[in-house]
Give the backbone structure.
Amino acid sequence: MTFLLNSDFIFRHLRPDLRNKRVAPFLAGPPAIGKTMAVNALAESGDFAVFSIDVNTLSDAADLTGVRTVPHPTKENRFVQVFFPHYTIQKANDHALENPDLLVIILLDEINRTSSDVTSAALTLLTSRRCGDLELADNIRFIVTGNDKGNISMLDSASLTRFALYPVRPDANVLLDLLGEDLQPAIRDVLTEHPDWVLQNPQPAGMVAVVADEDDENGGSGTVSETQMAEFTSQMDDAQDMSQYTAPRTIEGLNLWMNELGNAVMAELAAEEGVSPDGQTTTELMLGMLAHTGNTAFTAEVHSKMLNALLAPTAGSATGAVTIARPAAWDSLRAAKTRTEIEQIIGALDENKQAEVLIFALTTRDENKLSKDVLDLIVDFGALRSLDRDQSSVLLNRGTSGTLNPASVNYFLDKSSAPLVVSLTPIHSYLAA
């Protein structure tokens, strides 16, 4: 049984536990799924104050017990014990004393991703309710978070009896609410359509969506099911490489990166070629997305939606929204009576004019024979070996908006060894679509 990290969980489980100082909720699950976010949500209600300690950053048990052995200030080779509370604990206790009607929470974050000595000291803090010679106020409460698998300090059964242990999993709806108006439309659409994708490991053999198990009573709402959670944690436990995945924290990071770039820069990146870590040709935009949310179905779908949005004809003056009317040279090509005449007309065009003719040949649906001749000759001449950024954006625009002629596109893409066709590899799938 796992619990969704949402408002129901907070009000039905966390809040009742916090009424008793002898019980400490322990939220257990993979990193970055929103455990800390759920605790901080308590503070937003106004009834709690939250003070966080990143236990995994502590280097010595004394940081929590409040005891250190230090050299004697005047006597050589002598040591004395010095008692002092951790700064955050002192601050939380002061706040509790100043606000006796308020419950003050000390969040011990990542309690088992540190040395066993530090974990043990954190457990002692819970039961003794003291740090050094500082006795904690009655309205101090504890919440603990930790990982349930991986490189952790395991807790024995006696230690676990100190907690109300809640295995937890993320809820996409909470992430949607948290990011609010700052959320990129493409990310919002994907999370709305596929809320179960909020937790995905990379798929080595391709981007495969994780589909909710219809028989799972907790998976029907479209959120991450317990079956998916078990599969995810099992994959994480087995993973040996550094591969990024989707989780509330990584999705939030992708959103911040996209907001910082802005649409104009993202459109430029969408038209530039890049090579993914597994050697696949893709766009520079996709490479940036892979760095945040990994080789997942979520990343692929966000990338696809962004291309449609950035390069749609309605994008106005944005980069990539340039449109090309029928080139002047097309009338001359149409009037030519022989292939030799068509060849002479194309040979007289500079690279920019050839690019305009190429894009029109891939677009028009009424002159397939002429389009094929034009495509043959432009590729055979070899003068046009690649499109510039704006030309690539225009072509991608037409591909994602469905205005290209599929017959012409397939004919062009069949020339797979031609430099011009190879240069457009990152957008082949969007042209063919």
In short: The CA atoms of residues 196 and 223 lie 5 Å apart. The mean pLDDT is 81.
